[in-house]
Amino acid sequence: MRILDFEDSGRTDRAAELACLAEHIGTWRESGISADDLLARFELTAAEHARVRFWRRGYAAFWLHLVHKRPGPVAAEQAAHVLALLGA
Fold first, then answer.
1. Measuring CA to CA, how many Å separate 70 from each of 14, 74, 81?
2. Whole-angstrom Cα distance, residue 60 to residue 86?
3. pLDDT digits (tens, 9 = 90+) for 56-75
4. Using an 8 Å Cβ cutoff, are 67 and 46 in contact?
5. Backbone angles phi, psi at 82, to 5 degrees
6. Is the pTM of this model over 0.70?
């Protein structure tokens, strides 16, 4: 399977793109695909792993910012997810 994302088309960092896909709230919450399972399908260098970890934290915080005004399970789950990523 191949994924094509033309939203911000152009040459970019593969690690940032993978982190964006992995942390999209629709990926892990709505489809049930875990970020770790998704990322395990790609052969990443040690440097890419470090960049993925960095970008995942940023994208998770972005999603928390978007959902934090809606109290309920989504905001609570996202907050817990961000805290887990920051501790990793």
1. 32, 8, 16
2. 10
3. 999 999 999 999 888 788 89
4. no
5. -60, -45
6. yes
Return the structure tokens found at 5.
Answer: 């994302």
Q: CA dist 3 to 38, 44, 61, Å?
A: 12, 17, 24
Q: Which residues contact 77 (CB under 8 A, 6 or more apart)?
A: 29
Closest by CA position to 39, among listed 57, 52, 25: 52
Cα distances from 54 to residues 7, 10, 31, 48, 82, in angstroms, run: 21, 21, 23, 10, 12
The predicted-structure confidence for 28-52, as pLDDT tens digits, reads as follows 777 888 889 999 999 999 999 999 9
